[in-house]
Design a protein that fits this description.
The protein is α/β, with parallel strands linked by helices. The chain has a single domain (2-244), classed as Aldolase class I (TIM Barrel, Alpha-Beta Barrel). Helices cover 44% and strands 13% of the residues. Helix 2 (28-37) packs across helix 11. It is globular and about 45 Å long. The two termini are 16 Å apart.
Length: 255
């Protein structure tokens, strides 16, 4: 079973840049098609999109080999229940798992129950506002720790020498061709941005081919910057030497 989650983890790290389908009014299938055209193997779909209940199963059906991450996940049944009359697209982790998604991303943390229940099957990327929160989530079994750019001090603390760079970070928020190199230089291995950032406007103002070209540029600058920040990382991933990664593996994995 763990071989499946190993594969997802490696694919995401090799890709380095994760494009996000945000609530931009653009056809999600068009954005996915551009990502596939660009050679991407993973995308994120945010539950902020009102069409989530339709598009998540549709993307899963049309692109069965694509890693489909879902963002803006809340794992509190009581809170989700009380929000669904305003945001009917919201789904709890168990419903998303039933849809066949490959991972869960949140602006908040995940409960111990969510992490223990899904860590062997889904990539889990809860958010941390402090280094202590990041450590707690990682020791419970999260695979990546998400930090948004306003928490620059947290990013610096999590990647500082006294923290031993214990967990791989996913950073999002204002990540473009100009800001990605500096962020990656802080020892951040995974970057995410919305399609509207990649396209510098509405993604459907471009052709599929043009959008794919922009996606490749974002991935290339992330990969180039990361090889400077983590020399040899590309070879480690290519040779499947996960125990040689410059951070700790998830706590329930055997080294």
């Amino acid at each position: 079973m763990l071989q499946i989650i190993y594969h997802k983890y490696k694919v995401l790290l090799e890709q380095a840049f994760l494009p996000i389908m945000v609530a931009d009014g653009v056809d999600a299938l068009f954005e996915v098609e551009a990502a596939v055209e660009a050679g991407f193997k993973a995308v994120e779909f945010t539950l902020r999109r009102p069409d989530a209940r339709v598009m998540i199963p549709e993307i899963r059906k049309r692109f069965p080999d694509l890693l489909l991450m879902v963002g803006s996940v809340l794992d509190s049944p009581a809170v989700v229940k009380n929000l669904q009359h305003k945001h009917p697209q919201l789904m709890l982790p168990e419903e998303l798992a039933d849809c066949g998604v490959d991972g869960l991303i949140s602006m908040l943390d995940f409960s111990d129950d969510t992490i223990s229940r899904y860590r062997d099957d889904l990539l889990l990327m809860p958010a941390a506002a402090t280094p202590a929160e990041g450590l707690r989530l990682f020791e419970k079994g999260a695979h990546f720790i998400k930090v948004i750019t306003p928490y620059a001090a947290t990013i610096n603390s999590l990647t500082a020498a006294p923290s031993f760079n214990f967990a791989p970070l996913l950073v999002t928020g204002g990540m473009n061709l100009e800001t990605i190199p500096d962020m990656v230089s802080r020892k951040v291995p995974l970057i995410a941005s919305g399609f509207e950032v990649v396209a510098q406007g509405r993604a459907d103002a471009l052709s599929c081919k043009a959008l794919a070209q922009k996606l490749r540029a974002f991935r290339q600058i992330t990969c180039d910057s990361r090889e400077k920040a983590f020399p040899g990382l590309t070879a480690i991933l290519a040779e499947n030497r996960l125990s040689d990664l410059p951070w700790a593996l998830p706590v329930n994995w055997e080294i």
